[in-house]
Amino acid sequence: MASASSLQFKTDAKRVAGDLRHRGLIQTALRKYETSRDLQKSAFQDWQGARQSAAERKWDAINHLDVYLESLTSKLEARGTKVHWATTAEQAREIILGIVREKKARSIIKSKAMTAEEIHLNDALEKAGFSVVESDLGEYIVQLRNEAPYHIVFPAMHLTRGEISALFTEKLGSAPTDNPEDLTMIARNVLRDKYITADVGITGANFAVAETGMISITENEGNARLTAALPKTMITLMGLEKIIPKLSDLALFLPMLATAGAGQAITGYNSMYGGPRQPGEIDGPEEYHVVLIDNSRTHLLADPEQRDALHCIRCGACLNVCPIYRNVGGHAYGTTYSGPVGSVITPHLRGLQEWKHLSQASSLCGACTEACPVKIDLHHHLLQNRRNAMQEKPVWWEKDAFHIFGFLATRPELLRALIPFGRFAQKWFHWIVLGGPLDPAKAWTETRDLPPIAPRTFTDEWRARQRAASRKEASK
Amino acid sequence: MKVTLFVPCFMNTMYPQAGISIVQVLERLGHTVAYHEDLFCCGQPAFNAGYWDEARTVAGPVVKTLAADPADAIVIGSGSCGAMLKVFYRDLFAGTPLAQEAISVGERTWEFSDFLVTKLGVTDVGARFPAKVTFHDGCHGLRELKVKQQPRRLLEHVAGLELVEMRDSETCCGFGGTFSAKFPAISTAMGEVKCTSAAETEAEYIVSNDSSCLMQIQGLLDRQRKPIKTLHIAEVLARQ
Questions:
Q1: Shortest alpha-carbon distance between residue B94 and chain A (Å)
Q2: Which of A393, A421, A454 is where one domain is finished?
Q3: CB contact under 8 A, B16 and A13
Q4: pTM of the predicted model as reported, rounded to 2 decimal places
Q5: One domain for residues B96 and B136
Q6: pLDDT tens digits for range B164-204
Q7: Rounded to an integer, what is the distance from CA B177 to the centroid of its chain?
Q8: What is the ipTM of this complex?
């Protein structure tokens, strides 16, 4: 039985894949990204060497989480930060709800955090009666549309300026405009006020430096900086895999994330947070909470074959180059993390049988693995997920079909005797059902022609050549 | 040199001319070609679908036969099946009695264009093919076997041939084996993107080193009645 998520994926993917407007929009946007990414990559003296170093730094971090997490938290706590550990999404939500309740917060401002999407934080806060506003422009747009982010890095990439203008007119009462700067100003005017009135600011984290006990946040709009600086209480929600060993590692990771993620040399604003306002400091939050979330990341850690998926720095490079993502879009996946990395990790985070279809929905082209700045072996992990899923619970008819194929493929004389029947059936009968519901090859023939079985197979041709050669030899 | 040719199942049954062309090119270069009639498939369909036991049923005899074959090289006219033997057999047979044989077979296996250019050092096979051609990189050949420049070097030396690069030549055509049947809508969309890029070059032929990609591309082109044709690189190199 196909899972509900699988049926949903197939339906949505089919609809979007045939949508030529969507196809044009995404291809154009991502081709622009590719051009600027390549330009920035060329600024690295040795991009492949940089990837290797990044992979090694993350390998060290992920394989010594015990040491590095201990160092991170003890240093954060020494500066008065409250560090919380959440095993599950529910625990993380409860911790954050506990803090905002204690603070009697009326309004909450939030900067971009995929971990918050992962635990459906906004939903939980709103249900508990708190108002929460996204401060990243793209996130704000999808929040107004009541939608999930379309992409890890570019949440509103699927929308045109016209659609955003219409949305603002409807929700904010602004005058229609086609100018991106005007659109930004409309959102900014609304958001400025929210920063000032918010009691709590919630952020994600891009990196967590074990050596110094600091959270690194990188962004292009300055919104995360305001989210962190203005409210009295700051909360950072981060996955425990965000750790990097040393402060100097940021010299590699920050430009790498900017290049791979957005085709930028370096992201616009790069901030570090080590704790609440210290004695003698004039600004910063009075209270700082860091919530470290596992939410099944340790399942992935326990898998030596795929542990490197925890290296992911959420740059989105694998989504950008993935021909599947480019054709089905970010929403069809039905997951927080879409694209190749989402297809690899979601079965670990949320159940293999329910999410195995994402690992099957790949041509295994390997563009993702080639693009990944931290060298996660993405497309081979998709193969491993397929193997693990079928070992655990094979699909009986598929297994039978491969049994029969295996039986025939290892009995070439029998196969050779059957090929003429196939040729006959294809020539005289296939056209009757071609592309229709009774066509056994419908999945192929609905949109594509099927080549005929050749009048003579290669083996037939080979035998004829051998016979001709031996006749020639005999007549000498 | 003694060369053993491995012919993939779909090439054997649907594109025999590509296989014959490989034999012709190799013989023209003075090599002796052998072929095992009893080897039909590399086992990749079952392997990619996750059924590794069933894949070993098919791949086991391939490993045993080729390990016992004294040929200097095993040549395959497909980057995809080439990658299966060269890269994935290691994983498939790891921890089995055939582990060592699988590795040694992989080490002696070559994708056809890679064999000509890298192993033999040949870039001009004396072919003539007066046409405008664009080359499609099959993903497995490109990324698992690192075959990118080899086929282009060969095509550049074909008399009369004009090679034009298409936009996104490294983007997958959407075939992906059983993927094309499990997710036909996505596979078709990917193929359409590929066909559009190829058509933009105004080439008469899309050439590739993988017949499986060409089956996908030609299948779409035929259905949409587009005039551009597909051809395996061996068929171009065999023309004189």
A1: 14
A2: A393
A3: no
A4: 0.96
A5: no
A6: 999 999 999 999 999 999 999 999 999 999 999 999 999 99
A7: 13
A8: 0.96
